Every structure is written in C-alpha cells, then in structure tokens.
Amino acid sequence: MSAAAVPYPDQTGLTVVIPCYNEVDNLAHSYAEIVAELGEFDLELIFVDDGSTDGSLDVIRELATSDPRVRYLSFTRNFGFEAAFSAGYRYASKAWVLHIDADQQFPAAEAHKLIAAAKAGYDAVFGVRTNRQDPMLRRWGTAAFHFLGRRVLRIEIPRGATAFRLVRSELARRIVDLRLGTPYFLATVPRLTNRYTTVPVAHRARERGESKVGMSFLSSHAIELFVGFSRRLSTAASVACLLASGIAVLLGVAGATGLLGGTALTATLLVLLAVALTALSLTVRSLVVVGAGQPRPRQYYVREASVAVDEADLLLCTSPTREAV
Ligand code: UDP
Ligand code: MG
C-alpha cells in the first residue's frame, strides 16, 4: 500500500493510552485536556491503572461511567510503566495509539504535530522534548543514557525519543506480543520497521504529584537495554572475565610453585584468591551474557477492566472484576 493510501487517525480513530500510577490529582485534568484537544477524532481513552493505591482507580471508574469513550485496565500490583503502556497498546481498539502520560507533562495539543508527521508515511512518530522541564539530574542522566546506548553501544534508538508517541496499533501490538525479556519499546521499533521519525514537542513541568520513575528503576532499565540490545557490553564482559581468570590462574600457579617466594600461607592465600577470582568472573559473565534477554514469564496481570481481557492476562483472585472480563 502506498503511504498516501494508508489511513491516518483522522480517518480511522485514535486510542489514547494513559498509564497511571498514583495520579489521583492528575486524572480529571488529564482527561479534560485530552478530550478538549483531541475530541474531534473518533476517540478511545484507555487508562491503565498500574496498581495505584491512592484512589486513582475510583476516579478512572467515574470517568468511564460518565464517558463511554473511556475504558480502563487495572493491574494487580505495580508492574512499572513499560508494563502499563504495553497493556494499553495490547487492548487498543483503534488503528492508531497515542501514548500520553497522566501528569500532563506532554501537552495533548502537541499530538497534532505527531499526527501531521505520521501522514508523511510513518508507522511510529516519537515526540522529542525541545525544552525539557525536568530536574537537571534527569536531563544529564538521559544525555548519558543516549550517548552510551547510541554512540558507544550502537543501539538504534530514535534520537531523543520519548514515551509521548503515536504508533500504528498493529505495530505496537506486535511489539507487545513479542513479550521480550527486555521489553524496551524505543529500541524495538527500529528492529521491526524503518518507518519511524521524531518531532520536536513542548514539555511542561509536573504540577501535581511526584515523578514515579526513580533512579534505581531508570538505571536497571538502561542496563537491560545495554545488555539486551547490544553485544558489545557482553563481549567486553567476556573478555574481561577471560583476562581475570587468566591472571588468577597465573597467580595461583605462581603461589603454588613458590615462584613469588613467601611462606606456605601466602601461597595458599594466592591459590584461594585465584579460585575466588575465577568464580567471580564466571558469575559476572553468566549474569551479563547468559542472563541477558531471557524471557520473562509475564509483564503484568489485570484484576479489573472495562474491556474484554485475555484470560492469560487476568488474575482475578485479588479483587472482583466489574464487567466483561
Ligand atoms: N507510571 C506508571 N507506572 C509506574 C511509573 C509511572 O504507570 O510504575 C506512569 C505515571 O503515572 C505517568 C507515566 O507513567 O503517567 C510517566 O511517569 P512519570 O511522570 O512519573 O515519569 P517522568 O515523567 O518523571 O519520567
Ligand atoms: Mg512525568
């Protein structure tokens, strides 16, 4: 099909996916902004409650009751934002998915820029923050992450891409259904298609609530990407381990044969050090090389939803479901 013949959100409709974890003060504002800015489309809003404990789910239920365009999924616990948006993509019913955070940091009006860009023939359009309104540490962290990921490890990630994005639902679902051991959406899109692009978008500071994404999550997520999407780090780990084992063996031999002189105790300590170094380096290697990319059992479980959910995604014992599951 030629790019011109491919239907776009204004012809096919749009599912807006809003992941939320303890966003009770943001939800009504976020909903109002989305429908005000994008109400012209055949719209579906999917709120994904990622195990909130602050009453977010009650607000989402109210929104769903008063507006038939609103749907929701609620997780049995907090599974992390990657799981939250993945579930939203999975159950999107329209042909295009717009991902927008619940905290209004990405103005909904900016979605029009993504839609306009998609019309040039893209399957995925990522917003790039031109004036990012986050703390300096976060901005530096992202810069380091992109430098390491893109430049050093040569992982293809759309430059500056964020979670604010418009993706053809078929592509988004394909990626979710892969159920990757390292579910890194930004790096997976370029593995499936080259029809993606980026667009500069405005960004706002968070006005209500706190960021839910901590440094420990961000760093472990980055390591998952570095190990799962590049062989460079695992190759470097293997080489370092081989060297460490080699040195350890030499030390052990030198200690055992008395080449380094010293007492029997020194020799025994050297042999023990050699054994410990070898064991340590093999453990690190197996963690980095073998552990990378192992499939995970599941990314999330749903306890309640207003859409029909696959049985495999459900875990109903934690609370009763409301409908249609
Ligand atoms: N979020 C989520 N699960 C989590 C963490 C975050 O669903 O475990 C949601 C959160 O409610 C927000 C979006 O993901 O709608 C982005 O999170 P946040 O604004 O905290 O991230 P930041 O903008 O600081 O990177
Ligand atoms: Mg935010």
TrEMBL record:
Source organism (scientific name): Saccharomonospora piscinae
Record Gene3D superfamilies: Spore Coat Polysaccharide Biosynthesis Protein SpsA, Chain A
Name under which the protein is recorded: Glycosyltransferase
Superkingdom to which the source organism belongs: Bacteria
Family according to the record: Belongs to the glycosyltransferase 2 family.
Gene Ontology terms: biological process: lipopolysaccharide biosynthetic process
All copies of domain Glycosyltransferase 2-like, residue ranges: 15-174
GO CC terms of this entry: plasma membrane
Classification of source organism: Bacteria, Bacillati, Actinomycetota, Actinomycetes, Pseudonocardiales
Keywords for the protein's UniProt record, in alphabetical order: Cell membrane, Glycosyltransferase, Lipopolysaccharide biosynthesis, Membrane, Transferase, Transmembrane, Transmembrane helix
A Pfam entry, by short name: Glycos_transf_2
Gene Ontology MF terms in the entry: glycosyltransferase activity
Transmembrane segments: 239-261, 267-293
